[in-house]
Design goal:
The protein is α+β, with helices and mostly antiparallel strands. It has one domain. It is built from six helices and 13 strands.
Length: 250
C-alpha cells in the first residue's frame, strides 16, 4: 500500500500541448459527449467553476475536477460538500463525493483525462510536451512518512528552536532518457496557526525533449500507465527518505 493511500492524498494528472486558442464555448461544445453523461435524472451533476474567454474549469459531484486552457488539460480529485437542511434544526454538512484510496483514484483520473484529450486535441495540429502527476496531502508533521520528515528536517536544520511555520519549493531533475526527462516540483507548506497541518504537494513531470506527435489513444494510455508507475515509485522513494541520508554540513 502506498503512503499516499494511508494519508488520504488526492491526485491530479495533466498533459501539456503546444498552444491552441479556442473559446471556452467551443470547448464546452466539444465536451458534450462527456457532459451528457453527467446527469442524475433531471439534474446535472457538475458545476462550472470558472469560464473565461479561453479557459474552463468544471467539477462533478463525484469530485472530479477538469481544467482546460490553451496549452494544458488536467483532471484531479477534490472533496465535494453540500449543506443539507434539517427539519426544525440547523443545516448539516454532507459529503457528496466518494473518497477512495489514491492508487484507486489515480487510474480513474487518467481514464477521464484520456477521454477529454481524445475529444479536444486534434493530432494533426497538436503535439504533446509534458505529462504531470501530482499528489497532494494534508498531514500533521509528526504523522508524515519518515522520508518526508527527513526532508523537512534537512531544510530547517539551521534553526535550533521549534519551527512555527515554513514554506519552500525545490525543483529537481530526476533522470534523462532518450526523448524524455523527468523532474519533480516539491512544495511543502506549514502555515502558522493552521491547526499544525502541513501541505505536501509533489508534482512529478515527464517532459519531452522535443514536442512529439500526439500518439493514438492506445499509445497515450500506455504512456500514462508508465508515468503512473514511475511517479508512484518516486513518491515512495521520497517517503522512504534514503536520498536524504547525505552529509549537508559542508
Amino acid at each position: 500500500m502506498s503512503w499516499c493511500d494511508k494519508l488520504a492524498s488526492t491526485p491530479t494528472v495533466g498533459m501539456r500541448f503546444n498552444h491552441h486558442f479556442a473559446s471556452s464555448g467551443s470547448l464546452l461544445d466539444a465536451l458534450t459527449p462527456v457532459l451528457n453523461k453527467m446527469v442524475d435524472g433531471p439534474k446535472a451533476t457538475f458545476t462550472i467553476g470558472r469560464q473565461d474567454s479561453l479557459s474552463l474549469e468544471l467539477t462533478t459531484d463525484e469530485g472530479f475536477q477538469y481544467a482546460i486552457n490553451t496549452a494544458s488539460i488536467s483532471v484531479g480529485f477534490v472533496h465535494r460538500l453540500k449543506l443539507k437542511n434539517q427539519s426544525a434544526g440547523y443545516p448539516t454538512v454532507e459529503m457528496i463525493s466518494h473518497p477512495q484510496p489514491f492508487t484507486a483514484l489515480l487510474p480513474a483520473v487518467c481514464d477521464r483525462l484520456i477521454e477529454v484529450v481524445s475529444l479536444l486535441i486534434d493530432p494533426k495540429f497538436r503535439t504533446l510536451e509534458q505529462i504531470g502527476i501530482v499528489t497532494s496531502t494534508m498531514v500533521d508533521e509528526d504523522e508524515a512518512p519518515p522520508g518526508i520528515l527527513k526532508f523537512i528536517r534537512t531544510v530547517t536544520k539551521p534553526w535550533k528552536l521549534d519551527i512555527d511555520a515554513y514554506s519552500f519549493q525545490i525543483v529537481a531533475k530526476l533522470s534523462e532518457e532518450s526523448g524524455w526527462n523527468d523532474r519533480c516540483i516539491h512544495e511543502i507548506v506549514k502555515a502558522e496557526g493552521d491547526d499544525g497541518l502541513a501541505t505536501l504537494k509533489f508534482d512529478w513531470q515527464r517532459r519531452a525533449n522535443s514536442p512529439i506527435a500526439l500518439p493514438s489513444r492506445e499509445r497515450l494510455t500506455e504512456l500514462l500507465s508508465t508515468a503512473q508507475k514511475d511517479a508512484l515509485k518516486y513518491f515512495e522513494e521520497l517517503a522512504e527518505g534514503n536520498r536524504f541520508d547525505v552529509d549537508v554540513s559542508g
